[in-house]
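Consider the following assembly input.
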Amino acid sequence: MKSFEEILDFAIDNEQKAHDLYMDIAEMATRPGMRQTFLEFAAQEMQHRERLEAIKAGKLPELDQARVETLGLSEHLVDVPVEKDMDYQSALLFAMKAEQRAYDLYAGLAKATDDPNLVTLFEGLAQEELKHKLHFEREYDDVVLGDN
Amino acid sequence: MSLKYTIAPFSAWLQAVSKPFTVPVTGGPRPGAPRYRGWHINDVEKCIGCGTCSAICQNEAIDMVPVDDPVVGDSGLRPKIDYGRCCWCALCVDVCPSGSLGMSNEYVWADTDADVFRYIPGVDEKPWDDSELGWRREEGFELVDHDRVPMGMLDPDERTQTWAEVVIGYTEEQARVEASRCVDCGLCVAACPAHMHIPDYIGAIRDGDDARAVQIIYDNNAMPEMCGKVCTRRCESVCSIGVQGDPLAIRWLKRYATERFDNLAEVLQPQVERVGEGRTVAVIGGGPSGLTVAYYLAIRGFEVTVHEALPQVGGATFFGIPRYRFPMSSLEKQVDLLKSAGVKFVLNHRVDGDELTRMLAENDAVFMGVGLMKPMALRAPGEDLPGVIPALDMLREQNLGHEVDVGEKVVVVGGGNVAIDASRISRRLGAEVTIAYRRRVVDMPADDEEIEDAEAEGVEIVTQAIPLRVEATEDGKLDFVWGPAEMVQEEEGKRPRPKLIEGVENHLVVDRVIVAIGQGPDLDWLPTEISEKICNKWGYIEVDETGMTAVEGLYAGGDLVNDTADAISAIADGLRAVNGIVDKTRAQHV
Amino acid sequence: MTEQTALERRVQLWFGPQHPGITGNMAVQAWLEGDTLTSGVTHVGYLHRGFEKLMERRKFIQSFPIVCRICVPEPDTNEWLLAASIEELSGLDKEVPEKARWIRTLFLEMSRLSSMLMVLGGHVGAMGLGTAPNWLITLRDYILDRFEELTGARVYHMYVTYGGVRRDLPEGFAERLEANLQEIESKLPLVDNVIFDSAVFRKRAIGVGVVPEEWVDELGLTGPIVRAMGIARDTRTDYPYEKYGELDIEPMTTTGSDIFARAWMRRLEIAQSIDLIRQILAKMPTEGPYSAKLPNMLTWTIPAGETYVRAEASRGEMGYYVVTDGSDKIRRVHVRGPSYVHGVTLLERLMPGTNIADLSALMVSLQVCPPEIER
């Protein structure tokens, strides 16, 4: 990967893949309300994609480099497989883990690159994923862990 | 007459050259004394609009007028003073439960328009609004009684040896004294989800008419003995007396009134229109919302059948709440009243999707209040180990009278009422109990009194403890591993959230890990064509203002509809559905 | 002179209700022959607001703003009597803190002092002498300054409540009150010069308006009127209440039973009051609560019962007869004020033979307070 555009395209593609995955899960979800949940997740990924496209088109300022502090919720929780009877708790856990993996990907790429401009871009994208993760963490903290 | 008497009065002339008696006044009126009773001031932020000032004003000089949209705990009203009536006695200030009302030491105000002498202190700006001096409420002189009549309780050591009720209940005399503390402001009515007529039944208790109190209570609560024992009592949290003193023991007074009568049917003769004659309603789930619907529809002539999966109705109040808080006899008394009202019960019967569809076709209305039956999972490694159990299962087994073995040492994960109940039951089963909670004690959703009671019974609470994993030890016990958390304030106005401090692991070796982190709806049994219409993304059911779902004739309520998940909210949901069903029936009559 | 002409010579004269020479809003309908009254009838009702009846419709606490209006120059006796009677009937009297009892005693004595300063001025004011009344009103105002500081108001104090008083003494109150007392004492010799050493006052007061001793028990006369006959009767010593029993106090008397004697009696009692206030300030505890813990005043009910409580006002004995029925309101209250017997019964007996010019001075010397007659 060389240019900004290529990297952004890669990231856009990632968001698209995430969107498609959620659409697939929504399609097969059996539990009441879960179809809606995954459709919403998919819509969020689509928004992320649009945001990256806007950055690519120069319509938005560059990515925020400020470090995002997450709650560290998902790290010590178990992995959940994709299943048709996923409940809301599993869905959130799945989403948190997905965002974490995306973060790990970009953070790894930033480490593997020497070009300072690319490092900045990868780190920006990594922080962006952490923001998404924080969003799911807060929801998990409020809804699932209401009594804890 | 002596010459002295002719001359002496002329000594007054000496005053012409002496210091005069009078005090020269320059530079405007002399300021009133530091505690002068002048024009009113009111800290409208502190004021809760309870209207006690208006109630004590013997001149009826104070009107409560709307200034804002009411919020819970604040009527949205503020006192408006009519100085054509006010006599500046300051009883309003001395009685003010919030301590917001005061008087400035300003007393001069002239105007050609008499109407200006009616104003809302603190809202209508006046030059003396920031007056430091004047008459203020003073601690040590109270016109209301700040001290609650203490509730008798079993000794903590004694409690863990028995399943007997912990709370003893008020005697008649105690109840009358406690009831007399009420100032009849009605803020509690707005705060109660069911809008019970709290000041009215408290007034009846105060006046010694307990039967009347029960009649008032039953006007909109068919499970008052339960509420009198375990209600979350939002009413008490907004009680105006509670601002500076102890709130009225509203819950205990309701308990007192309902416990006075063994046969409620003799006391209650509801005078309601029997609009439902010849109509049938099916209720799925015998919890507080379902029983509410059943009672109030039954007394209106509807033929109501309640379908319950367990061998006893009561819902969470039967299988969830421990007997030392809500004994079986109390529940049975309430169910007996329902039976006498003609409600039919089908027990040990779990309704499935096909049956629901059939019920919708065969009944005029179906009410669904099946609660949140699915415990949230820990989702930490090791949660599948034997010995890691959901608190709800444990409570249900205990309340069904089955043998429950928690071993010698237990950790309960969570800080809600379920966690506290599981802990206190475990104490009674003889175990040493530790509660591990992710946040602080102040963040616990559990009732403050419950937390205190649990601690008194020897439950240890470890806060800011995040469960990491559970491991099996070699000697067949469980190693509960947790990490410490720091509280981080991310969003303004929201409670801080716990964040794991990496790298530290604490170990707690126990026999059981009881998980009580929360519960969610379990509606997998619903036919897809129904669930698609009525469920939101969290899997909860949505209803309109009549309590009806998007499916015609299907009503719902209780924990799977509201976001507060307590019994009184479930009762309120039930009442909403009752009104919806009755209104619809009446409309069909026309 | 024929009967006809005698009637023609009689003049009927209305004195009041709006007249500076009358003590408050009441009227005397007088029949005169020459300038001498042959008879007189009192007319009251101009101030009637039905205080007693109003109190039957009020919660107990709500009666305090009413009772103080029963006597404008001396409202405080009424506050105390209401508090004391309801405390006795409710049993709250056992809870009144020591300090509150001392403050109440101080409050009542300050009230007597301010009232007597005012009426002493009235004695000569009624004869058209303006100097002394102006001075005495100023001296009274010094006491009102202290009332304002203590209670938040100058005239209607509404300070005594069930179980004690509404606020503690402010910081430095005793010192400021003592300074006022010294100021008053320093001016009293001046006042004596223009009243008791005045030939005008002596000539118009000595031997005028004499009340015979036989009427005392017949009419129920009390206060300075009785003590000015040399009879040592005083509720404070005969039936001590609050802390009067712990004070060094002897009923004062003088003789003559005329207007002069009654004025002199008040002069003596001003000195006595100043002495008592000093005793109270010296004996009063500085620490402790000023009020008992009260039940909720909006719902307070007290047992059925009846009582009569009395106190020595500057005018004489005041008493409250109170009946309760177990509800949250007074069932019946009767205010026994000295003004009814002094201002109606006694005045009507004294009027025949009195010179019209002396009528005002006579009324002042009986210290008539019309709102107390009408309640």
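Chain B touches chain C through 46 residues (CB under 8 Å). Ask yourself how this observation constrains the way the partners meet.
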